[in-house]
Write a structure and sequence with these properties.
mainly beta, Porin, 8-stranded antiparallel beta barrel, 16 strands, 48% strand, globular
């Protein structure tokens, strides 16, 4: 229970950090707001063999959101072609009332312009917030994990919520538009509470947007802003957190990471970087566990350390930076201890890149979705979700310094 309380505090911090998008958006036009109501129809993506067995009916639900058109009064708004800032409230019936139940989410998001004509507007949507799921593994009153009679996807009621996809808007009449979205939505707790295979949804939205004060709504106006400095930037972030390995163990383990990266701004709104990442994961301590994915017999520091290089892509949104990193492990002793079925028979000696099944081993590729907020010109706060393909490994809470 203490672990769930800690995670609830983490979710509250995520809401605060995500809310900075709204507070720093500078939309500055109450006349420019729109109210959008959309129906949702979709499906749970069977990214895991355990998830396949608990998928029943299609996902359905609704989203109510409020959107504000940025006007270019902040440089980042103009650099990003005047995106729309919104906040959405979502209800989803996950298609299996007994095991998956319903999900509720609240999240801020941005809609970035791709194409705009008199007939329709096409945008890219990205957002992050928090979700609440009515059913978890612990609601099912069963410990029989092997027969999958429980909800193995989610171990906690509170979870992170990601949204990413495409958004279309077509005017019908003055102040009224037809809207349609197609998004990927993800809910998980980053293995803070297990089981946590997470839920990946592919959802289609259709609805109506109404702009009450459309007659007085201001249009974005381009202004003269200097280009951002294109010099190489350096950044160092130290992060920490906690995770569980297996729900039957009921044990919590510390995690940590240290990243050093160089970034080159290629435009006024995008930077590319190359980083060195070091990770500490306390779950690999050789403890007696019923989880036999990894062949560990001793508690050695070398098995808790991984290192890699990452190729980084980040959007620049004023004080906020949001991005996605792709990493390759260059030091990873765990790869030769997975999968258990093979490592238990003979020693493994895998190359840097090798074929693997994500259901049985982590593999050579790691990714990170990251959200950073600049407190000062040099000090920043960071939250990241590290994954192996579609499987979340842990949440990183960090403090950094940039030059």
């Amino acid at each position: 229970m203490n672990q769930r309380k800690k995670f609830a505090r983490q979710i509250a911090l995520i809401i605060f950090l995500s809310g900075c998008i709204l507070s720093k958006s500078g939309a500055q036009s109450s006349a420019g707001y729109g109210i959008k109501l959309q129906a949702i129809r979709g499906s749970v993506y069977p990214h895991d063999k355990q998830i396949k067995k608990i998928i029943d009916q299609p996902v359905s639900g609704a989203e109510l959101s409020v959107e504000f058109q940025t006007l270019g009064k902040k440089p980042w708004q103009q650099y990003n072609n005047f995106p729309i800032v919104g906040i959405g409230a979502v209800w989803l019936n996950l298609g299996n009332p007994t095991l998956l139940g319903d999900a509720f989410a609240l999240y801020p998001y941005l809609n970035f312009r791709l194409l705009e004509t008199k007939l329709f507007k096409l945008r890219v949507k990205a957002g992050m917030g928090a979700s609440y799921l009515t059913k978890t593994y612990y609601n099912t009153n069963t410990d029989n994990y092997q027969t999958l009679t429980g909800n193995t996807a989610i171990g906690s009621h509170l979870n992170i919520y990601f949204a990413g996809g495409a958004n279309m808007e077509a005017p019908i009449t003055s102040g009224v538009s037809l809207t349609a979205d197609y998004t990927w939505n993800h809910m998980s707790n980053g293995s803070v509470v297990t089981p946590n295979t997470g839920l990946n949804l592919l959802n289609a939205f259709v609805g109506i947007k109404y702009t009450p004060n459309y007659r007085n709504a201001a249009n974005p106006q381009k202004q003269e802003y200097p280009n951002i400095n294109r010099n190489i930037r350096w950044e160092c972030i130290a992060s920490g957190g906690v995770r569980q390995l297996y729900y039957k163990d009921k044990m919590n383990f510390p995690i940590g990471s240290l990243s050093v990266a160089a970034y080159k701004p290629l435009t006024n709104f995008y930077q590319m970087g190359l980083g060195l990442d070091g990770f500490y994961d306390g779950v690999f301590d050789g403890h007696d566990s019923k989880y036999t994915r990894t062949y560990l017999q001793t508690d050695e520091l070398k098995n808790k350390i991984r290192a890699g290089i990452s190729w980084r892509h980040e959007l620049l949104l004023g004080k906020i930076t949001a991005g996605f990193h792709f990493g390759l492990y260059i030091y990873d002793p765990i790869k030769n201890l997975e999968p258990y079925s093979e490592a238990n028979i003979k020693p493994l000696n895998k190359p840097l890149i090798y074929p693997y099944d994500i259901d049985f081993e982590d593999g050579w590729l790691y990714t990170r979705a990251v959200f950073k907020y600049a407190v000062t010109d040099h000090l920043l706060l960071s939250v990241g979700l590290k994954t192996h393909l579609q499987k979340a490994e842990f949440i990183e809470w960090g403090v950094g310094y940039k030059l």
